[in-house]
Prior knowledge:
Radius of gyration: 22 Å
Structural class: alpha/beta
Strand order of the largest sheet: 3-2-1-4-5-12-13
Largest sheet: 7 strands, mixed
Helix content: 25-40%
CATH architecture of the largest domain: 3-Layer(aba) Sandwich
CATH topology of the largest domain: Rossmann fold
Strand content: 15-25%
Distance between the termini: 72 Å
Amino acid sequence: MERNILIVHGGGPTAVMNASLYGAVKEAGKYAELTHIYAAKNGTGGFLREELIELENTPEADLALLLQTPGSAIGTSRDEIEQEDYEKMTEILVKKKIHYVLFNGGNGTMDTCGKLYKTCLKKGLDIKVMGIPKTIDNDISITDHSPGYGSAARFLAQSVKEVCADVKGLPIHVAVVEALGRNAGWITAASALAGEDGIGPDLIYLPERPFEADRFIEDVRKLLEKKKGIVVVASEGLKNAKGEPVVEPVFRTERAIYFGDVSAHLANLVIKRLGYKARSEKPGLLGRASIALQSPVDREEARLAGEIACRAAMQGESGKMVAFRRISTEPYVMEPFLADIDEVMMHERTMPDEYINSEGNGVTESFKEWCRPLIGGELPKMVSFN
């Protein structure tokens, strides 16, 4: 009897999303009972349109390139799914003789994963549905961290370090670097790792704390009494005390938000209220697409997550997501486990209080200790005689 597996990507891509695809495809190739290893072309939309890519005969040389290819090699999406769509998905799965489905994505995708699992269960279908975590935001609950985060954290820490070295060399302005992160400040916080040798940011603002323009200006003013060049890192998701974005979003859907230019806004505040030179930097998509700054730890864990999800499904597990439990930080040791999808679905994980400093403009040593092993090795050391 023909049996097939389907892999679906959802949400924003990462520098290691394809590593999870690699792990899943390689593991699926070990099972002779599988006729086809399908991938949905461009996420759930492609799934619903029955646009399936056959990967079972992909040359090994091409598969290996997934490990160094950012984005999604099969395409992803942010489609809004209704209950009738889940009903249609089950019909497609039966029609295509698909007995195993792997969803690779973040909070929204894990919600989709859970709802399809429950729909299959309700209809009495013997279809195994598993989740593979993926998000640069690191906001999936239960797991210690999510594949995609370590590489985004390394990119920002290294990029901020380079900006800091530049500003030290020509200390004439306040530079504001904007980091990705909708409601959680994990990526923004990682910029603190830039300062391990003293060349790092001066101020870090996270979305977990209400942003106050007056306090920000006072923080900058005090620093300008001591030094002429300052580097500020701010989350794109900064909100005021009312929970409103400090800059009106330029576009939004149910979950996706295209934030306004927060870094330019803060730089303009400095110029207007302090009369001091300021400029903004906004890496944007570069922050999730850099292979040059891909974390090897992140890549391996992403690959492992894909492999484990596939193996678990083939062994009869369903309604679960692969997660990571930290055993030790120094040396770094983690173990994978399977979490019930109900515990994951749409439960957003933000930065805990113990990782944010009391002033709300930086992070604690405990955060840096937690984050350090995930970026895959020390950043290049730098020096300044100025």
